[in-house]
Amino acid sequence: MSVYTDHDLARRHPEQPKAAQLGKTGNYDRRSPFSHDRARILHSGALRRLADKTQVVGPQQGDVPRTRLTHSLEVAQISGGIASGLDVNADLAELAGLAHDIGHPPYGHNGEHALNDLAADCGGFEGNAQTLRILTRLEPKVLSDEGTSVGLNLSRAALDAVCKYPWTRRPGMRKFGAYADDADTLAWIRDGAPTDHKCLEAQIMDWSDDIAYSVHDVEDGILAGRIDLRVLGDDSEAAALATDAHTTFGLSADRVAAAAARLWELPHVREVANTCVSNSGTVVGSGNYFGSRSNLVALKQLTSELVGRFVNSTIATTRAHYAGELGRYRGDLAIPHDIEAEVGLLKTVAVRYVMHNVDHLKAQERQYDRIFRVASWLLQTGEGGLDPVLWDDWKAACAAGDDARRMRIVVDQIASYTETRLERVDKAAAGLQAGWG
């Protein structure tokens, strides 16, 4: 861990040694500080709740859906693989992958949009900023000397590795990593770091997120019958995908079109495409996937090949750029342009044929309305609807007459809900309100 200094290993609030050691047997815990950090995330309630939060299709759809939790486990695994290939601390990269989506609310990005609209007058909502808030404030693990929660009290380097967007909210910028009332925490994390520059471990996590999203969301779309890979070999659909990729992700349309041609030439892509039989016999982006054992093996071989393609090319290119020891702010991840275009293409496939599916959009409207109904009910009932862990914060906000703070507490509550619990609260609130009438 020579790259990592005492400054990197520091925790904002000193902790006493564990008191439950067994007599005089000694302490045989040989884990590194980053291994401790990883364990804290792994054992957190916030991580477990991701099991009932949407990734692409809802957690209750299908027998083996990907959820925010399984996605996070996959991002952690890919992050660890890239880190190992670069001789960067794998625990640090993996914990960033585990934690990167902890702040995401029910219903994925749709829930994020709803909460951002709801919180317009108190600083908005952003999943990455909520992640920081959970890790440093909301998740109950460590208390300060004053008795306030400091979250998991992770090391500075661990928290920095989770920061995709290491800045507070700015005009004209949709993404940010901390709310205004968490700015002092972000300042502590970023002490000595280059302005607005992600550390290498955060870059690894961010790219691993893109890889997992691009490959596995397409896999889920194929299994759900919404994606037909023959679109990659269809000139009109490939051109439309290239345009969408430019509009949505800012990628070169020419590079993306070339990426479609390259991927279409991969034998595993052709093999999987031949298992997708479209409803009308034409290539329109969705079809009926026939999941025989051999077809499922082909699909899994494809996802494995693509992840390996993206990971190995990134490691090779980064190593070609840097000869010395890597970690923190020594070196940056070097992603080949062609590989970036291929990943962007697959992300666009998921957006075009899954996210923009008519049934999916109708469900999103219902989800958006549900979040607003529950928020209205929580604002009315206060402690009667909030979890006890938030009662002290609510009382303080009420005593101060701070409406923005009350709204932030309600947003914290809803963001913590699983989708099952949100729907249960919505039904219970409707029943109570009917009784009031």
TrEMBL record:
Keywords in alphabetical order: Hydrolase
SMART domains: HDc
Gene3D superfamilies documented for this protein: Hypothetical protein af1432
Disordered: region residues: 1-34
Domain HD: 68-189
Any coiled-coil regions, as ranges: none
Molecular function GO labels: dGTPase activity
GO BP term, example: dGTP catabolic process
Tree of life domain: Bacteria
Biased composition (Basic and acidic residues): 1-16
The keyword Hydrolase is annotated on this UniProt entry: yes
PANTHER family: DEOXYGUANOSINETRIPHOSPHATE TRIPHOSPHOHYDROLASE, DEOXYNUCLEOSIDE TRIPHOSPHATE TRIPHOSPHOHYDROLASE
Cross-referenced NCBIfam families: dGTP_triPase, PRK03007.1
Name of this protein: Deoxyguanosinetriphosphate triphosphohydrolase
Organism: Lawsonella clevelandensis
